[in-house]
Amino acid sequence: MPASHLLLALAIVAVWGTNFVVIKISLASFPPFLFAALRYVFAFLPAALLLPRPKVSWINLCVYGLAVGVGQFGVLYYAIDGYISPGLASLVIQTQVFFTIGFAMLFAKERLKLYQAVAVGIAMIGLGIIAVHTDATTTVLGLALVVFCGFSWGIANTASRRAGAINMLSYVVWASVYAIPPLFAIALIFEGGWGSMSSSLTSAPLSAWLGVFWQSWGNTLFGYGAWAWLLSKHPAAVVAPAPLLVPIFGMGASAFFLAEPLPAWKVLAASLVIAGLVVNLFWPSLRNRLTRYC
Questions:
Q1: I need a labelling partner for 266 at 20 to 30 A (CA). Which of 83, 154, 199, 205 fits?
Q2: Is the CB of residue 71 less than 8 Å from the CB of residue 148?
Q3: How many structural domains is the chain composed of?
């Protein structure tokens, strides 16, 4: 991979990782589901005026939009708003890898391999360490909510795989429209009604709106658009390891900007979850190399 492409990959994971800090800061001005609704309004417009609708069924777009918009990010914002620290959220949500494997077994009839079972076991030990160290900033509910976000992300991954070879940026933009109505409905019902919503919209400072636009354009349009471009230029095996850095950026940014502590147990838990992801991703190629040289 050329140095410029490597720097682009690092920029993408840096945006995705530090995004958890942006979420936490913006939640001081917007309630979580309203914040998520605004994210997808500006992810859809004006990009939808420039990008054609992808040639996939509306059901597929709807499943992806609901899974990512409501199940992943709506619930993630709710969890970070008082139930789990941003740094740990950036780590726990990577359980999406294992849910994606599970859905592939269920729908594509793929078989669970031994190394995948080992990878899941290692990551589960890491999650168990987090679960026994709950406190005022990280609760069992918060952990469960972010695991559910990983579950929803796995559903979204399954939907996007079934969509086939399409423009992923266009896919993400047009799927966003299906997330907007339920997110606004949840905000209206559970976050104080129209009066509270109107007050949040009119009183939010510029920094909060910059957070919304960063979510919509930086995280969604730049992140997914640049990621799709890299995947079109390089084999998936070359590009795929980059998201393993997301929790490192997430936890590092949370420690730097939000003074989130990094005790030994948290570092150990992060190491185990990332180790599980590494085993899942690299074991097949490592085994092939060992077989070739031994």
A1: 154
A2: yes
A3: 1
